[in-house]
Request: fold
Amino acid sequence: MTATVEAARTVSENVVRPVRFHQVGKAFGTGRKAVVALDGVDLEVRAGEFVCLLGASGCGKSTLLNLVAGLDAPTSGRIELSSSRPAVVFQEAALMPWLTAAGNIELPLRMAGVPKAERRAKAAELLDLVRLSGLGDKRPHELSGGMRQRVALARALASTTDNTGSGAGKPSLLLMDEPFSALDAITRDVLQGELLRIWEATGTAILFVTHDVREAVRLGQRVVLLSSRPGRVVREWDVQGLAGADEAGAIDEINAELRKVISSHAAA
Ligand SMILES: Nc1ncnc2c1ncn2[C@@H]1O[C@H](COP(=O)(O)OP(=O)(O)OP(=O)(O)O)[C@@H](O)[C@H]1O
Reply:
């Protein structure tokens, strides 16, 4: 009996992709004044995968994340999402200023109707995961920018964690929109390392938007380059585990491709 249940779970984990885009397009407005932000985007993020989405300013990266998060709808094509709701970590932590760090982390659990004792325990566990144990009673203004982003990350993990069914306890998809770009270089470097540790510890899939090639190569298993408006997938690189000269080579190659994309847009 146990074997059957385990087999079914393995199968579902293998086939479930947190998100899959089929020829997705998004235009703002209509007629001649329409801004086509995305056109014919095919993209998938597999279970537990870390994908970095790279592109020049205005190429539609945030639009794409908004579509996945359900904050907006595509004008063409289709987005397939697995059952759990993705959560977003933005450039600014956007915490509730009147709630403590723990209270902010508990908020999505409260909204999901999770009982108090369970919420408390989950918040404490997540505070520990983001290395903020002992700071749960601090309000956002008492924390540094880096600490606030850690709280935002913990809150997102709380809201993406599936509390039901066979996937219980497993976060499914985390969307990150340039989450470290407002931080100083040292804090950014530390948080990139922390994010990798947390990704490995939780098994969540991450779709991470950045315009920083170095960051994309350091963090991602796969780097996906979007063209400038309209945003389309132009190229992908498998960058998992690259180090030393290989990593530097990938950064140079992707930078060159990004420059090409930017200059072709400027010439259009
Ligand atoms: N609500 C909106 N109404 C009209 N145009 C919009 C809207 N949102 C985005 N756009 C346009 O769609 C295009 C893509 O915007 P988006 O914010 O997704 O780009 P981005 O790649 O995230 O940019 P950046 O890196 O500068 O944040 C831009 O030309 C932008 O002006």
Notes: Helices lie at 2-15, 61-69, 101-111, 116-129, 145-160, 185-202, 213-219, 244-267.
